[in-house]
């Protein structure tokens, strides 16, 4: 996601007006962040609200106050900056998601997630683009063909930040991993599509161009993933080899944070998808690096990553809320209020239709590949997946600003309408759809059915503890594996290779992965049970076997 | 420290050149930070090196490489930005210093610290300014009277960041608290002097102006301290009242971080000394707020603050190292190489003379007030204090850029010479003086005499555990108080008020402070022993008495 230099102006404008006003806006933001956290805490028990909606409402409220105080000319203090968003706020959120994600669920549903994220987004993109061409053409909005395709890419991007807020990993693990995983892949897809729309010669759409697009997508996906995995492994190796813990907790924490960020910024440097990279870096770090550090850095990194992500999320929603009142665009767009309303409504409709057009068919296809009843995606779950992915957020805003403004400013009527409509769709979908998601999830899936998979292990990020035997997730094998004892210490019934692979491919792949992991990866990169036990580390809840230093197995 | 809007250009230049180049420079910085940490770790045992010198050398090396690659025109990528320094890098360092400082030592030496920091800096300022007027006038550098006074203020600022690196709090607690405490106060003094030089009408220096200066200093000192204390208490009250721990660790950590930063940025907003504010906020937070959160946030905040401070320090030295090669100023200054060298040497000499002129006389005065031999500052210690405060760092650089450049650029000969001389003094004093400090401390004070006060409590920041009885620091009373049991639970011999106050003022004040703290402050704001015991919190090493929830005494 390397955007052209024009897009930097937003940051510059925000920072440059003057030193004093930048201090004022930082003070304002920090105060509002504190307010959001306190209010979010007080509203914790409320079944409708969540932190993002609170932040959005406070943001809009503050925007109104600023507008009133400055008598309608304050938009410059808080121009939306893509750079701030993509370079500073998004990485901690996605990294933390990878760091805390239940890897078991994520890899079990890997194929479904890929299907939703890649093919689904393309379907959604096609429908929204076609719809835009048909409807907006009639409305005389005054956009070119490239703009219509860009609209498709912009509104195909599900807001994974918002999804993280409304779905609960512990309550609905399957849905969470599907919707969130889809969100991560989906982001890569939209960015590829968006760049393609901006770069390709659209007057000659041919099969070659289509193949180029698909090739580009796979290149992006694979190279981003590899970069994330390599950076994560490097961090594990560095920390294991030097074993900083003997000297300094702070060095371990600093190295983990810096290398996580390095993976993202390297991906940006190579024009890859930083989101995919940092997500996989998070997964690798929680599997290897996290186990190589001593006890205090474990607690510290776990909570620090979560806190940074939490603050960045609130910051984004505050920011979007405030920016929604950027008076310049509204003034231009308000000359044709009917068109604006019609465009916003049409976009909302297209987003809903585009998502429905892939969630239900692809769920059906996914169900065909599953044997066990409990692994299938039921109709109620399909509705929830459809619903939870309707929210559009900061990613859509950033792409829309990139397409329709020059450095945060626009005077053209068509562009102004698109910006205001994007803001309307983002606000409406986040607030209205967001408000209704919690009750909807509760209505469709009552709590008693949700409770069976709540994790009791609140400290240790789950490692690859997929049960090797039987179907039950709560099997003793799982619990046993979850307690820090590697599978070598137990007798394992080998799966009957080929037949097993055909029947339960994911599990067989997992079995061989685990063998490979224990034989080659862990001795080199560390991980659970492969670092020396530190006596007296007080919060280590698992059973330690006093591993000898660096066992070679 | 609110500078005029011109100074923003540095940030803008750095960020604005283009999106891609900002990604490149971020990647470069993050990679170099990782390299510094790893190399710093490998050089841990080396008695000469420390992390700041490593970072400075790596920074200069990278600067050379960039210069060679760009064939001598790369200075714009990394223009020194005061804003980045004062708004983002300095606050975590100073906050952490306040958070981890041994309060006992700090408050015991409070009067000496104030004398050194305020009067000492003024003496130093006078000598450097007068010296500059005398010597630079002869050299025909071409500066105005205001510039000479500014030079006095710039070079009166001891680099507290560098001091933190070369002195060890556990090995030399008295020296550390004196030199570091002086550095914090000293910074406020230099900034007041610097602003005074820029704002006052210097052609009419009168007694009135001098009194105004002194009044300004006291106003700044007191209001900054009060702001820091109030923000810290507010954070303690908010966390204690809402008791976030029941719901979310991340909220507690986020509130602590945000409110700490808020104190700094509020001080900047009101044109106070953010450094003093955030330092006292750190002290209050470690005394109250830190005890109000649950176990995991305690570990997390302690290590996160330390890590952020650590990374910010390395970042600053890298940055200064790279910026040292800013080719533009060197080109202008190189037309008169002899003058440049003479100016740098003169400045170094003046810095040393200015510091000697207050350290030895003020130490003598301080010793007159102390009765006990071990509380006096010996000659060897005086030499160390003098030496450890000779380093000039990023604060001097930032002030020099503010005075002698417009947005990081200069073409005037006199200004260019001053900038290059500042860089020379900073590099020379940090590297040469810095390299020699560790050996010097070891030579003047051999390790066996240093060991007696090494703290064994590595987790809990020391609280106000001044011994109430006897002279010995290692008395049982101290150990007992240090274990989390408030003084109420033991019988205390009341000091014989007035006589006691005259003989040992600090201790008597402390006794009444402690009474007040336990009777009024702790019940409201929490603190050690005044928050409910969380069963099973594994790393709590102190003896818990199972306090009832919110005891009212």
From TrEMBL, chains A, B:
Reactions mediated catalytically: K(+)(in) + H(+)(out) = K(+)(out) + H(+)(in); Na(+)(in) + H(+)(out) = Na(+)(out) + H(+)(in)
Keywords of the record: Ion transport, Membrane, Potassium, Potassium transport, Sodium, Sodium transport, Transmembrane, Transmembrane helix, Transport
Cellular localisation: Membrane
Transmembrane stretches, start-end: 20-43, 55-72, 84-101, 113-136, 217-239, 260-285, 305-322, 342-365, 385-404, 416-436
Coiled coil: none
Database matches in InterPro entries: Cation/H_exchanger_CPA1 (IPR018422), Cation/H_exchanger_TM (IPR006153), NaH_exchanger (IPR004709)
Gene3D superfamilies listed in its UniProt record: 6.10.140.1330
GO cellular component: plasma membrane
Cell division in keyword set: no
Topology with respect to the bilayer: Multi-pass membrane protein
Chief location of this protein within or outside the cell: membrane
GO molecular function, a single term: sodium:proton antiporter activity
The UniProt record lists the keyword Transcription regulation: no
Designated name of the protein: Na+/H+ antiporter protein
Species for this entry: Plantago maritima (sea plantain)
């Amino acid at each position: 996601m390397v955007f052209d230099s024009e897009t930097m102006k937003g940051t510059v404008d925000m920072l440059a007006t003057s030193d004093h006003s930048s201090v004022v806006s930082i003070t304002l933001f920090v105060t509002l962040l504190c307010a959001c956290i306190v209010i979010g805490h007080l509203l914790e028990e409320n079944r409708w609200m969540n932190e993002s909606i609170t932040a959005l409402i406070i943001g809009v409220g503050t925007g109104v106050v600023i507008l009133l105080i400055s008598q309608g000319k304050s938009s410059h203090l808080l121009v939306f900056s893509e750079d701030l968003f993509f370079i500073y706020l998004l990485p901690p959120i996605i990294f933390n998601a990878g760091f805390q994600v239940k890897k078991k669920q994520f890899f079990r549903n890997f194929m479904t997630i890929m299907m939703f994220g890649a093919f689904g987004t393309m379907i959604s993109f096609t429908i929204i683009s076609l719809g835009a061409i048909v409807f907006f053409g009639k409305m005389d909005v005054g956009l070119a063909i490239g703009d219509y395709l860009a609209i498709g890419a912009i509104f195909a991007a599900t807001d994974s930040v918002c999804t993280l807020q409304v779905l609960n990993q512990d309550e609905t693990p399957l849905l969470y991993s599907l919707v969130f995983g889809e969100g991560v892949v989906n982001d890569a897809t939209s960015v590829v599509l968006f760049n393609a729309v901006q770069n390709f010669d659209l007057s000659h759409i041919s099969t070659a161009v289509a193949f180029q697009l698909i090739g580009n997508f796979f290149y992006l996906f694979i190279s981003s993933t590899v970069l994330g995995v390599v950076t994560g492994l490097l961090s594990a190796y560095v920390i294991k080899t030097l074993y900083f813990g003997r000297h300094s907790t702070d060095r371990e924490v600093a190295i983990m944070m810096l290398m996580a960020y390095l993976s993202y910024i390297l991906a940006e440097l190579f024009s890859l998808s930083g989101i995919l990279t940092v997500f996989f870096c998070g997964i690798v770090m929680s599997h290897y690096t996290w186990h190589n550090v001593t006890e205090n850095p474990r607690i510290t990194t776990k909570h620090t990553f979560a806190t940074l992500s939490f603050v960045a999320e609130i910051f984004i929603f505050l920011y979007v809320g405030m920016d929604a009142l950027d008076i310049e665009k509204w003034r231009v767009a308000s000359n044709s209020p009917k068109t604006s309303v019609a465009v916003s409504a049409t976009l909302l409709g297209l987003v809903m239709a585009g998502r429905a057009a892939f969630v239900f068919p692809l769920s059906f296809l996914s169900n065909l590949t599953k044997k066990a009843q409990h692994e299938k995606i039921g109709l109620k779950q399909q509705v929830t997946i459809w619903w939870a992915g309707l929210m559009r957020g900061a990613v859509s805003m950033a792409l829309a600003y990139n397409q329709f403004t020059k450095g945060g400013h626009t005077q053209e009527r068509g562009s102004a309408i698109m910006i205001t409509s994007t803001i309307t769709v983002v606000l409406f979908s986040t607030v209205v759809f967001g408000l209704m998601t919690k009750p909807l999830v509760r209505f469709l899936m009552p709590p008693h059915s949700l409770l069976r998979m709540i994790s009791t292990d609140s400290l240790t990020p789950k490692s690859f503890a997929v049960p090797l035997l039987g179907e039950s997730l709560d099997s003793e094998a799982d619990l046993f594996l979850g307690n820090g004892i590697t599978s070598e210490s137990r007798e394992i019934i080998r799966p009957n290779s080929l037949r097993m692979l055909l029947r339960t491919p994911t599990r067989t792949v997992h079995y061989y992965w685990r063998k490979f992991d224990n034989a080659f990866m862990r001795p080199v990169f560390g991980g659970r049970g492969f670092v020396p036990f530190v006596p007296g580390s007080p919060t280590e809840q698992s059973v330690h076997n006093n591993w000898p230093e660096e066992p070679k197995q």
